[in-house]
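Milestone 3.1: sequence recovery, worked example.
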């Protein structure tokens, strides 16, 4: 395999273009130390200078100027941007110059040449990002992912239900029953007013009612930094499956014990595993037909199940994002509970991706899957930033019998941090008696 068969699609700040030629110029920074009456010199190598990249981009056709304008607009933006080099891939660069030659012999054609200079350090001394700044970026990405995924779902529902309008009356009634059954999962008592329109003729009415019944659940839930409140909210949004016109539900485990290794003990050496990162969660063992779409996935009856799964994932991801963001200001959750929240969302995202791939067309499925991956990555990043904002966890062996208040005073000189020690160590059965030799997780400071 050679470079000719592995070229990448070139682009700058997302604006794609065809490439006629590319040249990469490298240079070392060398200091020459010369001495009087001595032949030769000593060379001091100060390292590589920023690489310069010269590219000739091609545009042609009646609409070639729109492509040229989009690329020039990207050039004129302030700061560095991402260049997809056709050979070397992603590079952060700043554009230094560009030229747009027009020739009378080549109408509707231009070979635009530009030069870029590498804009990142091998050792990024000044690229530190605070946990709060990282969390804010993750929240922005989360919001974008939610909007994009909901848009893809609405498009799929609209396109697939449009076909049902040509069905016989009995088939139409069967689909209507499934649509209503999905809504009844969240609002069995029909406390939320629903549209009187036919969902088959007006797919937007179904999407609106679906979001309304799910939003009613989230709006009635006050998380207020409580992990137990989160588990109650999560349990209100089950995993969905379908058998005929019947909608099956299965609870997605939201507790800590199913996702974080550890022991609940009152023994002298009882312990919980130290948490330093967020591993990929292990899905709980449940009925196979509820993990993935039903065997006849891809039929029109699966569309409402897919829509409900993706929409509830988006709702819960937004709630989880707010919960984790609050942790930066008022930490009340243990690292294990943070892991459980992140793991729950990642599991739901995978369910949603499975359903989208089974129901939507290839192009829409790809777009929706990318949006869902953005949601999972954003929630994962939020969880990591929350953990980064706290001191590192260390293991402490209790030297003498004591209670939580005495231990907090000994470790930190502050007895009020006793609740923190108890929160970090759910295996402590009695905070008033902590046995000698017990291994606990505590913050380093």
């Amino acid at each position: 395999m050679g470079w000719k068969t592995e070229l990448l699609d070139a682009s700058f700040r997302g604006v794609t273009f065809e490439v006629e030629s590319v040249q990469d110029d490298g240079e070392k920074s060398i200091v020459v130390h010369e001495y009087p009456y001595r032949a030769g010199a000593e060379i001091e190598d100060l390292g590589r200078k920023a690489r310069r990249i010269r590219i000739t981009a091609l545009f042609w056709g009646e609409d070639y100027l729109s492509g040229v304008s989009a690329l020039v607009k990207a050039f004129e933006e302030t700061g560095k941007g991402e260049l997809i080099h056709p050979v070397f891939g992603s590079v952060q660069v700043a554009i230094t110059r560009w030229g747009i030659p027009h020739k009378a012999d080549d109408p509707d054609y231009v070979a635009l040449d530009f030069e870029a200079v590498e804009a990142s350090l091998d050792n990024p001394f000044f690229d530190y990002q605070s946990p709060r700044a990282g969390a804010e970026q993750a929240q922005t990405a989360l919001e974008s992912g939610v909007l994009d995924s909901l848009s893809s779902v609405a498009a799929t529902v609209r396109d697939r239900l449009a076909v049902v309008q040509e069905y016989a009356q009995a088939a139409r009634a069967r689909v209507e029953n499934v649509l209503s059954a999905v809504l009844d999962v969240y609002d069995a008592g029909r406390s939320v007013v629903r549209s009187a329109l036919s969902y088959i003729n007006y797919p937007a009415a179904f999407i609106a009612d679906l979001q309304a019944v799910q939003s009613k659940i989230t709006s009635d839930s006050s998380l207020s930094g409580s992990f137990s409140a989160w588990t109650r909210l999560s349990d209100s949004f089950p995993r969905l499956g379908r058998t005929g016109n019947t909608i099956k539900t299965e609870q997605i485990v939201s507790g800590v014990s199913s996702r974080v290794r550890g022991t609940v003990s009152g023994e002298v050496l009882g312990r919980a595993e130290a948490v330093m990162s967020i591993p990929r969660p292990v899905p709980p063992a449940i009925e196979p037909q509820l993990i993935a779409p039903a065997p006849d996935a891809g039929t029109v009856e699966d569309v409402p199940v897919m829509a409900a799964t993706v929409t509830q994932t988006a709702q819960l991801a937004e709630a989880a994002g707010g919960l984790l963001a609050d942790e930066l200001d008022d930490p009340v959750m243990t690292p294990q509970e943070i892991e459980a929240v992140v793991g729950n969302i990642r599991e739901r995202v995978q369910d949603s991706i499975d359903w989208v791939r089974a129901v939507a067309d290839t192009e829409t499925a790809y777009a929706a899957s990318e949006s869902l991956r953005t949601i999972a990555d954003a929630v994962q990043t939020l969880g990591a930033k929350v953990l980064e904002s706290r001191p590192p966890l260390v293991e402490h062996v209790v030297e003498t019998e004591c209670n939580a208040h005495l231990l907090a005073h000994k470790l930190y000189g502050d007895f009020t941090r006793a609740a923190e020690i108890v929160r970090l160590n759910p295996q402590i059965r009695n905070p008033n008696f902590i046995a000698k030799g017990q291994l606990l997780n505590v913050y380093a400071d």
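Confidence is low (pLDDT under 50) at residues 260-297. The first strand starts at residue 11 and ends at 12.
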